[in-house]
């Protein structure tokens, strides 16, 4: 059942992205729409990357911006299962997340990339070239894409 939910969610997101609908992203409001935590955990365990995921987490650390190449706002979150992820949010394309604070919840939709510390989520913004699924972050009632 979980695999069917994940497939349906991803199909829906890809379909919207390919149809170039002005607001092609979805604000996730119910736990049934999140990527199962087991998918992200298994991606880490098997060193798998390039997985489109939607989940929520608590901000546990705020890092300096990465200013090499495209600039990225960076922070670490903890998922409900204890896994930590680095969020690398491109601020050359999307707006900076304002007033970000430790112990606050975020919801994200982006691409998981494996690393030995839990993984990185990137593509949390629209793709100006239209070649990648649009991502986003929802924080404190605002959507950043």
What layout of secondary structure does this protein have?
Blueprint: H1 2-18, H2 37-45, E1 51-62, E2 72-78, E3 84-90, E4 105-113, E5 120-122, E6 136-139, E7 142-144
Outline of the structure:
The chain is α+β, with helices and mostly antiparallel strands. Helix content is 18%, strand content 31%. The protein has helices spanning 2-18, 37-45; strands at residues 51-62, 72-78, 84-90, 105-113, 120-122, 136-139, 142-144.
Structural features, described:
A hairpin with a 2-residue loop joins strand 6 (136-139) and strand 7 (142-144). This protein has 145 residues and is of the alpha+beta class. The chain contains two helices and seven strands; from the N terminus they run H-H-E-E-E-E-E-E-E. The termini are far apart. Residues 1-31 have low confidence and may be disordered. It has a five-stranded mixed beta barrel. The protein has a single domain, classed as Beta Barrel (OB fold (Dihydrolipoamide Acetyltransferase, E2P)).
């Amino acid at each position: 059942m979980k695999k069917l939910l994940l497939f349906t969610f991803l199909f829906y997101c890809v379909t919207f992205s390919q149809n170039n609908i002005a607001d092609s992203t979805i604000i996730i409001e119910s736990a049934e729409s999140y990527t199962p935590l087991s998918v992200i955990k298994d991606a880490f365990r098997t060193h798998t990357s390039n997985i489109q995921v939607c989940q929520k987490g608590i901000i546990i650390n705020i890092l300096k911006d990465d200013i090499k190449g495209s600039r990225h706002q960076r922070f670490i979150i903890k998922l409900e299962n204890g896994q930590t992820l680095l969020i690398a949010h491109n601020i050359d394309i999307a707006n900076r997340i304002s007033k970000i604070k430790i112990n606050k919840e975020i919801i994200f939709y982006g691409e998981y990339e494996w690393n030995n510390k839990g993984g990185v989520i990137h593509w949390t913004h629209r793709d100006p070239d239209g070649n990648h699924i649009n991502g986003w972050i929802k924080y404190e009632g605002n959507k950043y894409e």
